[in-house]
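[agent] plan:
  1. take the single chain provided in the ticket
  2. run structure prediction with default settings
  3. attach structure tokens to the ticket
  4. add a short note for the reviewer (M.T.)
[agent] executing step 1
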Amino acid sequence: MTTHHLITDLGDIGFGVDIGGSGIKGAPVDLVAGTFRSERTRIPTPQPSTPAAVSDVVAKVVSSFGIEAGERPVGVTFPAVILHGVAKTAANVDKSWIDTDVDTLLTARLGRSVHVVNDADAAGYAEVRYGAAKGAGGVVIVVTLGTGIGSALFVDGTLVPNTELGHLEIGGRDAESRAADSARDTEKLSWEEWAKRLQKYFRTVENLFWPDLFIVGGGVSKKSERFLPLLTLRTPIVPASLRNDAGIIGAAMLAAELG
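[agent] step 2 finished; step 3 output follows
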């Protein structure tokens, strides 16, 4: 890991960290443009991914940019339902995170204010502020298709946190077990076969929420032309534009506004 140039002009700079099952990534973010101000740092997620081990890596990521402690709050995404800073689930990280006060833990470890947010919520917020949903009013639902299905719900730009729409029961099955990108890969489904499952999933969601717009994120969104045209929905559906940068950007923005 290299030490990046020191960030000294903090006027419109936030900092975001994205904790994932395989990697922990961070970067300073231009809060006006919604872009990275420096190349991101990535360190593999420690195994086992216990609170102590992960918080040490988060500290290394932040310190690599030389930002002084006590400056602007750090935004951190976490793959869990986050209620008032506390992890209530643990997807792709060690189960010892459940009921851990992630906010307090990381604030103590970093020596600076931290704002922790669900990873899908952070990515969705970036898309609403800077990406594919910029300027969109009404109800916007961002869905990430990856190992599972993440979701973020917005009403006139305001986040309704911790929706778990990937776990809707559809046809007696947990939706993400059938329609996540991992299911397409594991079952070796064609794009057409997978699109039929997505059709059922998105039709169920739109009948429950009547959204004005769907945004589809996750790595597979880079190939959106292979499956989105196969869907027949009344709701407009478009690919995310910020892709893998969205979590870091959204976390930094939320920390600056709420932290």
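[agent] step 4 note for reviewer: Residues 1-9 have pLDDT under 50 and may be disordered.
[agent] ticket updated
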